[in-house]
Amino acid sequence: MNRNQKPLDSASQxxxxxxxxxxxxxxxxxxxxxxxxxxxxxxxxxxxxxCAVVVTRYDENTRALKALGVAPxxxxxxxxxxxxxxxxxxxxxxxxxxxxxLKGLMRGKTxxxxxxxxxxxxMIPARLARRFxxxxxxxxxxMAPLLGERKFLGTLLVCTANDEFTKEELAALRxxxxxxxxxxxxxxxxxxxxxxxxxxxxxxxxxSQILEQKQLQKVLRAIVSNIHRVIPCDxxxxxxxxxxxxxxxxxxxxxxxxxxxxxxxxxxxxGTGVIGTVARTRKAEILDHAELDPRSVYxxxxxxxxxxxxxxxxxxxxxxxxxxxxxRYHDRPFxxxxxxxxxxxxEKSALAIENAxxxxxxxxxxxxxxxxxxxxxxxxxxxxxxxxLDRILKEAVGLLPSASRASLACGRGPRHADAxxxxxxxxxxxxxxxxxxxxxxxxxxxxxxxxxxxxxxxARAQTPDDRCSPHSQRQGSRCSDRSGPGRKHVLxx
Length: 493
Known about the structure:
With 493 residues, the protein is of the alpha+beta class.
C-alpha cells in the first residue's frame, strides 16, 4: 500500500469486504456481467450512502460505453427525463481524441472532480450534464477505470452529495474498483468463450455445407450465403484469380441487391485496389472507414457513407484462388477476433474451391475420353475406305473448337474462320447410295457432306500431292492426270 494512502478503518473495511463478497457471489452465480455490476452499484449506494453510481462496459466494436449497473432508480429517471431514452439503451461514444478525461481513463488514471461536463463533453452538451447534477444533487464525482491485464473494460462512476470524498471512501473505492475489474474480466472471458464456442459450432456446420458441394458456382454461393452466420456482415463476395488476365474477376456476391449487381463489371488487376493489394500480398486486411481509403474503388454514384471492410486471400498451397471480402455499412468495425474466425473460414473455403475446380477438370477429361471412345466405335463400324475416311474427318472436326472447325472446313486459315462459319453448313447428305467405279461410294446416309457455296469436299482416290485445277473443281469435271497415266481425280459432288 502507498504510504500516502490512509488504511481503512474497521467500519469501512467491514462494508468493503461485504460488498466484495457480494460481487464475488454474483459473479459465480450469474456468470454475466450485467447482474454483477448491478449488485455493485446497489451495494455502493446502500452501504456507503453515495447519491449516484453508474458502472459501464466498454464495447470495442462500437467504441462506446454502455451502462450495466445503475443505482438508485432516480438515476434512470433523470436520464430518461433529460435524454428521452432508457438508461439501459443509452450509449456514450468514447471520443478520446476530444476528451482528455476519457483518454486518461483508458490509460488507467482515475478522475475526481466537481463538474461532470468534464467527463461527458463534447459527447453530451454541458447544459445537460449540469442538469443531471442538479436533479441528483451531485457535488463531487469520481470516475475510475476497470482494467484487466492493461485492457480497458469499462468505468465506475461514483457521485456524492458532499463537497468531497473522505480518505476512507477513496481507499474503499480503490479496493472495490480492483475487485470489480476482476469480476468484469472473468465475466468477459466467459462471454468470449461462449461466443467463440458458438462461432466454431456454426463454422463446422457451414464447413460441412460448403465442402459437400462439388460444382464451383454452388460452392461460391454457399460461401457467401453462410459467412454472415459466423461473422455478422451486410455484404459478402468472392473475386477469383484469372491467371491469363492477371486480375481478380468478380465471381459472386450476397445478398443480391442493386449495389452487388453493379460489382459484376469490376475487375482488379493484381496490386490495384484493396482487392488487388490483398491478392498481391496474400495478407488479410481490416479497413475501418474503407470509403476514405485511396485504394477503394466503387461503382459510379454508389460510394457508401460508411464502410468497414475485411478482405481475406483464398490460397491453396502456393496457388492464389481468389479473395473473400465482407463489409459492414453500419458503425461496427471488424476486430481481431473476426479476422481469426474469417481465417479459418477462408481455409475451408479455399479447399472447397480447389476441390470444385479439380472436379470440373476431372469431369471434362472424362467427357473427352468418352467422346474419343464413341468416335473410335463409329469409325471402326464401317469397312469401306471412303466411309472410314469421311468418318475420321467428321469426328476430327467435331472434336475441334468452333473456330478451328470452320478454318479446317474452308482451308483459308484462322483469320477467315468467321467467314467460313457464316458460309459453311454441315449436315447429313440424304439419298440413295451411288457407286463410282473409280472411287467408291459417292453418297449415302452414313456419309455427311455440305454443298453450300464454294466449300465442297473432294473425295479422291489419288495421293494428297495431286491437285485439280480450281476451274475443273468448279465445273465438276474430271481433272487431267499431271502425275502419270491411268491416274484420275474425281469430283465428289
